[in-house]
Write a structure and sequence with these properties.
Blueprint (H helix, E strand, L loop, with lengths): L1 H38 L4 H15 L2 H13 L5 H22 L6 H15 L4 H29 L3 H6 L7 H15 L2 H13 L5 H23 L4 H21 L3 H9 L5 H20 L3 H11 L23 H30 L6 H23 L8 H37 L6 H27 L2 H30 L3 H5 L1 H41 L1
Helix pairs in contact: 1-2, 1-3, 1-6, 2-4, 3-4, 3-10, 3-11, 4-9, 4-11, 4-13, 4-14, 5-6, 6-9, 8-9, 8-10, 9-10, 9-13, 10-11, 10-12, 10-13, 11-14, 15-16, 15-17, 15-18, 16-17, 17-21, 18-19, 18-21, 19-21
Length: about 550
C-alpha cells in the first residue's frame, strides 16, 4: 500500500512540475508567446511551427490551447489558423515526451538547487520566475525517477498483474483507458510517460501501450473541451475542432493497431522506447495530414456551434480573459483594456448628460442604464484584479495594479455623479419647468467640452504613462478649475443683476459647477501617478550623482 502511495505521489509531482514550468514560462515570456502566436497566422506552415515552439516552452499542449482559445474569443485570431496552431501544439507535446525520457537524473538536483536559490533570492523578478521554471523542470525529472523506482516492486505483485489484466487488447477499451489517464493526470504528456514506464516493466503489452498512447491524445482533446466549456462560441469551436481532429486520427489508426504492433515489435529497440517514437510519428503524421483540412474543419465547427444571440443592451466584460491570470503582466493588460472601455461608457454618459441639459429629458432612462453598465464593468475589473497573485508582481506591476483599480474606481464614482446630476436636471425640468439662462447654458456647455477633452486625455495618460501628456493633463485640470471658478462668479453677478432665470436655477446651477469640478478631479488624478514616477526617478538620479 505504501509503494502504491509513493507511485501516486510521484505522478502528482510530475503533474505539479509541469504546472510550475508552464506558469513560470508564461509569467516571464507570456507576452512574447502571444506575439509569436499572433504573428504565425499568416501562413499555415508558420502557424504549425508556432504551435510546436510555444508548446516546447510551456511543456503542455493544453496551455497552448488555452492561449489560442483566448485569442479567438477576443477576435485576434481566426478559427482556421487557430486549429493549425493546435495541431502544431500536439506535435510539440509529443517531442517533449521524447526529451523527458532521456537519462537526465544528474540534472534534476542541479536544477532544483539553482532554481530555489534564484526564486528565493529574487522571487518577484524575472530571474526569480526563471528559477521557478528551473524548479519545475527538476521536479519533472525527479518525478520520472520516482515513478520508475515505485513501479519496480509494484509490478512484482500478483494483484497488480490481475488489475491490469483486463487490458487484454480490446482496442476501444484500451484507448478510452488512455484518455482517462490523460484526464486524471490533466496532461497527455504525463499519461504517455506513465504508459512507457508500464511497458518497460512488462505490466502491459506493447499493443495495449500503443492504444493507451493514442487514447492519451484523445484525452487531451477532451481536456481542451472542458476548459472551453465556460467560454464563448468561438473558443468552443477551437476546442471542438481539436477534439474532432483527434477522433479522426483514432478512427484511422486504431483498426490497424495490431498490424502496427506486430511490425514495430520486430524492431530491436525496447518497447518503452518504441511507444515514445510511435507517439511522436503518430502525432506528426496525423497533424501534418490534417493541416490542409483546417479550413473545412473550421467551417464544420462554425455550423455545429452557432453564435448565441446576445442582448446588446446588456454590457459584458470583453477583455477579462481568465486564462491569463497565471501571467500577471497579461492579466494587467486585459484589465487596463477593460478600464479603457469603461472610460468610453463614461464619455457616452457625459454626451448624454449634455442632451438632457438641453431639454431631452427622455434620455434620463438611458443614462441610468449606462451607469448600471459602468457599475457592472467596475465590479468585473475589481474581481478580476483580486484574482491576480500579488506575490508574483514586481514593483512596477504592483504599481500598475494599483493604478488600474484606482482609475476604475474614479470612473465608477464619476459615473455615479453624472447620473445624479442628470436626475436632478430631469426632476427640475419636469416638476418646476425651469430653464437655465442663455449665458449660463453656454458656460455649462464649455465646461462639458473641456471635461470630455480631459477624460480622453486622462485615458491616454492611463494607457501610455507618457510624462508629457501627464503634464498637459495637470495643466488642463488647473485651467478647468479656474474656468469653473470664473463661471461661478459670473453666475453670482447675474444674480446681482436680478436675472430671473439665474435666480430660479441658482441652486441647481451652482451644484452642477461643483459636481463638474469633482468629476474633473477624478479624471485628472491619473496624471499625478505618472508625475510621481518621474519625480522618484529624478530623486534617485540625484542620489546617485551625490554618491
Amino acid at each position: 500500500m505504501l509503494t502504491l502511495l509513493h507511485l501516486l505521489s510521484a505522478v502528482a509531482l510530475l503533474v505539479w512540475g509541469t504546472h510550475i514550468v508552464r506558469t513560470g514560462i508564461m509569467r516571464v515570456y507570456g507576452a512574447r508567446l502571444r506575439q509569436v502566436l499572433s504573428r504565425s497566422i499568416e501562413k499555415k506552415l508558420m502557424a504549425f511551427m508556432g504551435g510546436i515552439c510555444v508548446t516546447a516552452l510551456v511543456q503542455s499542449s493544453n496551455a497552448t490551447a488555452m492561449l489560442v482559445t483566448s485569442f479567438v474569443s477576443q477576435g485576434l485570431v481566426a478559427l482556421t489558423p487557430a486549429l493549425v496552431i493546435i495541431l502544431g501544439a500536439d506535435v510539440g507535446n509529443a517531442l517533449m515526451v521524447r526529451v523527458l525520457t532521456f537519462d537526465l537524473s544528474w540534472l534534476s538536483p542541479l536544477l532544483i538547487v539553482i532554481g530555489v536559490c534564484l526564486f528565493l533570492g529574487r522571487k518577484q523578478s524575472r530571474v526569480g520566475q526563471i528559477g521557478r521554471v528551473s524548479i519545475g523542470l527538476g521536479l519533472i525529472l525527479l518525478a520520472l525517477e520516482l515513478i520508475v523506482s515505485s513501479l519496480t516492486p509494484i509490478t512484482q505483485a500478483n494483484g497488480v498483474k490481475v488489475l491490469f489484466s483486463w487490458l487484454t487488447g480490446d482496442i476501444l477499451l484500451d484507448a478510452l483507458t488512455g484518455a482517462l489517464f490523460a484526464i486524471v493526470s490533466y496532461s497527455s504528456l504525463a499519461a504517455v510517460l506513465l504508459t512507457a514506464t508500464l511497458t518497460a516493466t512488462d505490466v502491459i503489452s506493447f499493443k495495449v501501450a500503443l492504444c493507451l498512447a493514442i487514447g492519451a491524445n484523445l484525452g487531451s482533446g477532451i481536456l481542451v473541451m472542458f476548459n472551453a466549456s465556460g467560454q464563448n462560441a468561438e473558443s468552443k469551436r477551437v476546442a471542438l475542432g481539436s477534439l474532432l481532429f483527434k477522433i479522426i486520427g483514432c478512427l484511422i489508426v486504431l483498426p490497424f493497431i495490431s498490424l502496427l504492433a506486430g511490425v514495430l515489435g520486430r524492431l530491436s529497440l525496447p518497447h518503452s522506447e518504441l511507444v515514445i517514437y510511435f507517439h511522436i510519428f503518430y502525432n506528426f503524421l496525423r497533424c501534418l495530414a490534417m493541416v490542409p483540412f483546417a479550413s473545412q474543419m473550421a467551417h464544420l465547427c462554425g455550423k455545429w456551434l452557432t453564435d448565441t444571440p446576445v442582448n446588446d443592451r446588456v454590457v459584458r466584460p470583453r477583455h477579462l480573459d481568465t486564462s491569463t491570470l497565471d501571467t500577471p503582466v497579461l492579466a494587467l493588460v486585459n484589465s487596463a483594456r477593460e478600464t479603457l472601455r469603461m472610460g468610453d461608457v463614461v464619455e457616452s454618459m457625459l454626451l448624454l448628460h449634455t442632451e438632457v441639459l438641453h431639454g431631452q429629458i427622455e434620455k434620463n432612462r438611458e443614462m441610468r442604464r449606462l451607469d448600471d453598465d459602468v457599475d457592472v464593468l467596475y465590479t468585473a475589473i475589481k474581481l478580476y484584479l483580486a484574482q491576480i497573485s500579488k506575490e508574483d508582481l514586481d514593483d512596477a506591476d504592483s504599481r500598475r495594479w494599483a493604478e488600474i483599480i484606482e482609475m476604475a474606481l474614479n470612473l465608477e464614482q464619476a459615473g455615479d455623479i453624472i447620473e445624479r446630476m442628470t436626475g436632478d436636471i430631469a426632476a427640475n425640468s419636469l416638476n418646476v419647468r425651469l430653464a437655465f439662462s442663455s449665458q449660463g447654458m453656454k458656460e455649462l456647455d464649455t465646461l462639458h467640452e473641456q471635461l470630455i477633452s480631459n477624460l480622453r486625455l486622462s485615458l491616454s495618460v492611463f494607457l501610455s504613462n507618457d510624462m508629457t501628456s501627464a503634464r498637459r493633463l495637470r495643466r488642463a485640470k488647473h485651467r478647468f478649475r479656474i474656468t469653473d471658478r470664473r463661471y461661478a462668479h459670473a453666475h453670482v453677478d447675474r444674480l446681482y443683476q436680478q436675472n430671473v432665470q439665474s435666480l430660479e436655477t441658482s441652486s441647481l446651477h451652482l451644484s452642477l459647477l461643483g459636481d463638474l469640478k469633482r468629476i474633473n478631479s477624478l479624471f485628472c488624478s491619473v496624471a499625478y501617478n505618472v508625475l510621481e514616477l518621474d519625480e522618484e526617478a529624478e530623486e534617485e538620479m540625484r542620489e546617485r550623482n551625490d554618491s
